Amino acid sequence: MANDKTSMQLIARGILSENPIFKLALSMCPAVGISTTVINGLMLGIAVLFVQVFSSVTISLFKNKIHPRIRIPTYTLTIATWVTVIDLALAAYLPDAYARMGIFVKLIVAFAIITMRLEMFACKESANDSFWDGLGMGLGFLVGMVVIGFVRELLGSGAILGYDVLGFKPLLFFILPSAGFFVVGLMMAFFNWIELAYKRTKGKI
Amino acid sequence: MKDILTIIFRLTITCILAATVMGSAFIITNKAKKHNEHVNEQKVRYSLLGYSAAKPIPESMALHEMYRYVVTDKESQAIGYLLPGKEGFFFLTLDMEGKVIANKPADIAESAVLEKDLRDKVVQEIAGAGKSVTFADQTIIVTNNGQRVAYLLDGKFTGFKTFIGVMLAVDPKFSILGLEILEHEEDPGLGAEIERDYFRNQFKGKTFDQLKDLDVVKEPLPDEYFQALEGNIAAADAAKILAQYGDRDIYALTGATISSRYVNTGVKSIVKKFAYRLNILDTALAEQKITAAF
Questions:
Q1: Does residue B171 lie within any of the structural domains?
Q2: How many beta-carbon contacts under 8 Å exist across A and B?
Q3: Does B162 touch chain A (CB under 8 A)?
Q4: pTM for this predicted structure
Q5: ipTM value
Q6: What are phi and psi of B78, to 5 degrees?
Q7: What is the C-alpha separation between B174 and B12, in angstroms, rounded?
Q8: Whether B128 and B153 share a structural domain
């Protein structure tokens, strides 16, 4: 199955039509757990973006050498390696950011979205296409995390990027993990509604 | 059969490759990480004492490190202190009643004492075979022209999720000069707020007597107090407001009363235990006419 999409289409697919959080509903644990503020979401998004791109390219480069029966352990090992590298690099060069992201970076090893992209795309396509696909998926995750973080920070602590904009805390509930699911659900509905509206104007439905 | 061999071979190669990548990353980043930790530690210490890059620490001030060890063998338990003397370090062992058991010079350099492994080895040698030594905690004694002006206490206690590591600065009368949260894994947005200024600074200025029955109250934090704690208003006004609220209990964090309580009890117990231990140590030093560097 050769890939017939251009690099831009691959990126757009990751952000819009196959957004990991709003469309594929993958890696919900971290999305719900850490996206309490915009900054938290952004930083985990960036870390995931790097891991996704590096892992996709690595698997794509070595796809002919991977025995089909042991591809999952190989994927896990690849992801774990890159997560460790990023974890070490963050701890060494960005200690302030690392202090805030804490244990969540290590959790990236178990992110469903990364393994899924390796299995569905990187193990079949060229390194170049895998790079763009990884970038698109990573960006999609990042955008999702930032949007959820925005809603939860605004409603939960009445602030944006740490600046108090509302002056009061409207619903403390939105900081709690369970509220993450509500936000994700509402966002999914919103994105689907936009997509439907867009298709309707194009006369496709 | 052939399959198994290829699988074993390829997985081994993968593992070796992964290990090489991770190992190289570790070697490259380790130095920077150690350096960061050291810089960060220094910054925390100085900021707790009220100094920063803009306001450097005066020449007459000195920081002396004191390490506490628990020395045990089959029958008895003793407390050992690795202290800086006039010339080099010495290791003082006290029994549980505060009587001096032994006082031996420790052959360890100023720079080597900072490395935990080297320090532990020297202490083990002094304590002798058959004893087991465990590192308990470290304290930094700050002196200005030979007079003690503050103590920096390291501490760790349980939080809502895992341990909370803190550093406390107290003056010679054990009033709190500052509290810094070094590590914690509390919930972001809730318990994690313990590291914010408006929570930490509530402990500032609490005297030893106030601390003994300091409690956590579930009341909303008054806005002017919040602004003063966060340092959003002019220093003179802030000082007035802080003085007005100085004798209040600690206001619990919204949605994180348990974390607030743990920090409160943790801080209290660190200071109380330290005051008790320091008293014993000072008495022992005075009785034996031992002069320490502080």
A1: yes
A2: 70
A3: no
A4: 0.68
A5: 0.76
A6: -140, 160
A7: 58
A8: no
